[in-house]
Write a structure and sequence with these properties.
mainly alpha; elongated
Length: about 110
């Protein structure tokens, strides 16, 4: 996959938006780190394959690398955006707290 192509760019956009808005709404402050990582991974697989599908990467089914690359780009973008932007700025914690029915664990948010 061309790292400057449409699919890669869409994966980076989806990963960034996922980490800053979507995943904090889904995840709960009381979940363990393992559960949060599993949710991020499963979400990235679904979002990455969806992005590949909607950009036409699966039109000819000749190369599965597009799907695998799409998932990896989305996962790396989501993790990087969360750790480098959403978590340090407090954005992710604020969204999680606002969208969670349970109170946050002490020391988080």
């Amino acid at each position: 996959m061309d790292p400057t192509g449409d699919l890669a760019m869409w994966n980076l956009i989806v990963g960034f938006v996922s980490a800053t808005i979507v995943l904090p709404v889904i995840q709960q402050p009381t979940w363990t780190a393992r559960t949060r990582a599993a949710v991020t991974f499963v979400y990235s697989v679904i979002a990455g394959l969806g992005t590949a599908y909607f950009t036409g990467a699966f039109d000819h089914f000749t190369d599965v690398r597009a799907g695998i690359s799409s998932v990896l780009f989305t996962l790396v973008a989501a993790i990087g955006s969360y750790k480098g932007f959403a978590q340090p700025t407090g954005l992710a914690g604020a969204i999680e707290a606002a969208s969670s029915p349970a109170p946050a664990r002490p020391g988080e948010v």
